[in-house]
Amino acid sequence: MIVTHLNLSNYRNYAVADVALAPGANLFVGRNGQGKTNLVEALGYLSTLGSHRVSTDSALIRAGEDAAIIRARLQHNGRDLLAEVQINRSGANRAQVNRGQIKPRELPRYFSSVLFAPEDLGIIRGDPSGRRRFLDQLLILHTPRLAGVLSDYERTLKQRNSLLKSARGSGLKTNQLTTLEIWDDKLVLLGSEIIDERVALIGSLLQPIRDAYASVVGDDHRPSLAALLSIDGLDAEAESGSGTDDAAASGTGVTADRFREALARQRRSELERGLTLVGPHRDDVLFELNSLPVKGYASHGETWSFALALKLASAELLRRDSNSGDPVLILDDVFAELDLNRRARLAAAVSGFEQVLITAAVLDDVPGDLTAHTVHISAGRILETAEEASHG
């Protein structure tokens, strides 16, 4: 799949932006703060319904405006597609494909991209929530129907937490117990599917991340990843010494059975805290190099390389399994962090993708074979030539 044209209205610092894109490598060049990352961020939003830089949609809307619009013309196997999303400051967002209205969460069915940016170091170094978000975004791109499962799980979790809060301190009344059991059933049904899908995804990423890491670094540091599941007593969100009554389970057997057993063990603590203490919302994933956790043990360069390999592996997995061709691969401000050897290795690693979008502040940071189609950006304007940029 490739993007042939991107149009923005009232997005970030762009009142209007129109840019034609080509197959292969596309390079956006401009000084920091000019708007080059905003272009690739907009395309990332189409496939993940979120920004890699901010947590709220309102920050994407141009100051003083009520809505921002992203339009992308897509092409795959000779078929043209127009995907659009309107991001509203108030009220629900809206989406269209070929002018027909769809639910925004259905957009990943039509367009997939994988974006790597410096902010992705947070996946490795940050809280478990960032790693869960990474897995879930990849799950949706890989299996779009899971967007509905994840959404239903969040609603079920919210309702169950509300019931636990209302019963906190006073114990469950008979009618509340019956209602809690209903929410337990829904939580287990939806949560078990999410857990199984995440575990399978992690398994599918193992070989691609090893290959990607070796291609970028040129060495084998034995990168690996493994699921840490709260239903097996590995609660990523538990505070040290919190005193929950969860004893670690075996980690074997049917997921739904382990989930129910974990809920039973945690019932007292859940009532005391008014909170659901087991489930995919409290899971994590462990990243390792040379059998040591990347977080806390790896150098900055190793962490950077692992995060980059994680995204390259994700793109390779989607390319392998998707019916819509390669995902669009986006590298936001990546090459400046790499030495000449790793720049060349990365250029070789991405050369086979149908379309790669790159941003850079300095043209010379990017290997020459990735600069054939270069777009210059200055103060929220798309410029035709480098000469225009120098005078803009």
From TrEMBL:
Q: Does the keyword Cell wall biogenesis/degradation apply?
A: no
Name its cellular compartments: Cytoplasm
Q: Where this protein primarily resides, as one coarse class?
A: cytoplasm
- Signal peptide residues are none
User: Superkingdom, according to UniProt?
Assistant: Bacteria
What are the protein's UniProt keywords?
ATP-binding, Cytoplasm, DNA damage, DNA repair, DNA replication, DNA-binding, Nucleotide-binding, SOS response
Note the PROSITE patterns from the entry: RECF_1 (PS00617), RECF_2 (PS00618)
- Identify the residues that bind ATP: G30, R31, N32, G33, Q34, G35, K36, T37
Q: What job does the chain carry out?
A: The RecF protein is involved in DNA metabolism; it is required for DNA replication and normal SOS inducibility. RecF binds preferentially to single-stranded, linear DNA. It also seems to bind ATP.
What name appears for this protein in its UniProt entry?
DNA replication and repair protein RecF
Identify the species of origin.
Mycetocola manganoxydans
**Higher taxonomy:** Bacteria, Bacillati, Actinomycetota, Actinomycetes, Micrococcales
Gene that encodes it: recF
